Amino acid sequence: MRRPGEKFIRNLPLQRKLMLIIMGCCTATLFVSSLFFVAREAKVLYRNQQEYLVSLADMIGRNSAPALAFNDPKPALDTIRPVTEKGNILAVYILNKDGRLFVRYQAAGQVHTALPLEGLPDWASQDQVAEAVRQVTSEAYTSSFLSGYASVVRPIRLDGEQIGTVVIHANASGFLNSLRWNVLVALGFMAVTFLVFCLFSARLQLMISAPLLGLLAAMKEISASKNFALRVTKPCDDEIGLLYDGFNEMLHEIEERDQILRQRQAHLQQLAHYDPLTRLPNRTLFYDRLAQALFHAERAREAVAVIFIDLDHFKDINDTLGHRTGDLLLIEVAGRLGTVVRSCDTVARLGGDEFTIFCQNVANEENAALVAQKLVALFATPFRLGSSEIRVTASVGVTLFPHHGKTVDELLMNADIAMYHAKGCGKNVFALFDKRMNEHASERVTLLADLRQAVELGQFVLHYQPKVDLLTGKVTSVESLVRWMHPRLGMLAPDKFIRLAEESGMIAELTAWVLRTACLQAKAWQDANLAPVRVAVNLSPFHFQRQDVKQSVCAVLEATGLDPTLLEIEITESALMQNDEYTCRVLRELREMGITISVDDFGTGYSSLSYLHRFPINTLKIDRTFILNMMKSSEDQAIVTAIIAMAKSLKMQIVAEGVESVDQLEALKDQGCHEIQGFLVSRPVNAERVARFFTDEDHLQLQNSAAQPLAEGTAQHLVNGKA
Ligand SMILES: Nc1nc2c(ncn2[C@@H]2O[C@@H]3COP(=O)(O)O[C@H]4[C@@H](O)[C@H](n5cnc6c(=O)[nH]c(N)nc65)O[C@@H]4COP(=O)(O)O[C@H]3[C@H]2O)c(=O)[nH]1
Fold it and tell me: Which residues line ligand 1 (CB under 6 A)?
């Protein structure tokens, strides 16, 4: 339990506490030492006085001994008298052997009734005298001294035998005066020393407390300013110096931790609001900024354009070229997007390959369209990622505040719908939101849901379209073309669902089914001893570049037992260009296995024959749009002529697609085209019907004879997905 004083002292400021301690210690030391000095002085004085009185008493005793022996007081008095001349002797008594008063001498005019023997009559009894002597004896050492008297009692001996006693009373005032003087000196010394101590302790406490108070001040300053970079200067090398070192070390650690904390906070802030890959604002920040922009735009009656950008077939790039390349591409795309908009606009990455932009104060739809156009144009230049060059396009959807939506969610949803519409229009374009798109979007969602289960439910069928050799008129191969027997919408043509399958990633599953079914069918024809005919399978540009294309083809060939020379792979020009090296390697491996490689829709893509020689291509299929127009347009005719000439120089087989008329057939024959495919020979039909073409007959002759009806066969082509 603490005493109240202790608590008070503990709560005193450090300076006062130090002063109190130093002054307390000094005062106590001074007091004790002065007391010791005074006591010692008193003892010396007292001893001197006593020794003097004893020697005086002994001298009186010696000189009075004969007088005592002869019982004659007079000589004794004569002995005493000169002694009493000493000013401080008050009384001298000589007692005889019997203890009775023998001589009494008192200084003239001085009666001290307080002295025990003073009051005794000369005839006092032996006991009275003895009692008085006993008092003297005791008081000699105690009270008589303090009351101003000093007394001694000494025996008087003669020849060794005590013959009397001498008692001397002296005035102790001299001694007391000396003692007082000593006390005064001591007190004076104490006072002076105390003053010196005061000054000294003030200085000393300052020496101790100043560094501590300095540390305290620095601590307060640092805690107020939060500036942990500050340091205190060490004032000395003692423990306080160590305290300063420790304080500085602590500051250093706090500073480091503070820095780490700040960095982590900034990092968290960055993570919370920015996309770590592209460093663009993320969904949260975009929503926040857009909400603010809408708020201001509403007050200022301004329009805001919200743009949704989605890279076309990004998933396939990721799958085929790896996620690292995908990431690099996204970074490059993010960099390019920033170049189109103003600094007050925001470009964000919502996730995956989805980017959003909002542009403030957009005058009208035309201006918004201009921005969107610029965004689409950004993708015209290929992206250079390390050593390879990647071509990627983007579909862009645009929506305007307040015309197409009032809230962030509404605007983003509509921009997304517009973007899907752009994809539906063939990608690499932009679309401005229109309310009618909503209907289309919901149809698309339903179709996507149906597509997910179509493979499992066996809703796909393959149709086959023969390719005929222009010289022999015989079927060389059949192209397998997928159809979807949709339970509600009827038979759907590939253009209604292939893109959807590509965008949803289901193309891989669908292609696997097509490949397996086509190979099984070809094997069945082979086993039925029909004339050996190749079966061609379309590989989606993005599916083709999957790392496991070769393995999946090999697995299907192995599983079905089909001879690889009876398989043909059709890929588009764009598929060739997406990853030159990888594509080239896979194609070469497939070709080495005996598989025929055809480039489909040739002329619509890069139309550059210069790169073709790098790829192991067997066949070029001239796109049907050129064939369709070649009889009407001299330009298309020239293109067809050029393609045939160059392909021949590269020793490639040429197939003309979409041949519908005998005129086209004749023109192609004249130009040296090798094969044709089109409604003139047959529209795509099921396996059973196409097998009828696997004969040695000249199918061109047969068609020539019935040219007119077949030329009209365009009418038999799929209409809205129905054959
Ligand atoms: N107007 C006209 N058209 C003709 C004529 N001859 C053939 N066609 C049509 O042209 C398309 C030829 O296939 P493609 O160029 O590979 O173009 C194909 C192909 O790129 C894609 N496709 C079809 N099946 C598959 C498949 O299994 N996988 C992939 N990835 N794509 C496929 O869908 C596209 C369209 O296929 P289809 O609708 O079956 O349309 C077929 C065929 O019906 C003609 O004389 N006149």
Answer: 465, 481-482, 493-495, 498, 511, 514, 538, 540, 570, 600-601, 624, 657-660, 677-679, 684, 714, 717-718
